[in-house]
Design a protein that fits this description.
By secondary structure, the chain is mostly helical. The protein has a domain of 40 residues. It is built from 3 helices and no strands. Helix 1 packs across helix 3 and helix 2 crosses helix 3. The longest helix is centred in the last third of the chain and has 21 residues. The relative contact order is 0.18.
Length: 63
């Protein structure tokens, strides 16, 4: 079973995935988020980057 993520992580990740050019690679997404400098903590940045990967993978299956 997977982890339950807070809704603010999911909402932020979906919004960012639609705006910027994120990929299915966690490390690249993490670097892009670090450049945007939106997060005060590394943990929140990594959670958002991980959920963006999940969103991008699901876009492939739904399209």
């Amino acid at each position: 079973m997977g982890r339950v993520r807070p809704s603010y992580i999911k909402n932020m990740a979906r919004e960012l995935a639609n705006r910027a050019n994120f990929t299915k690679d966690f490390e690249q997404n993490k670097q892009l988020l670090e450049e945007l400098d939106l997060f005060a903590s590394k943990q929140v940045r990594n959670k958002v980057a991980g959920y963006i990967v999940r969103v991008k993978k699901n876009e492939l299956f739904s399209a």
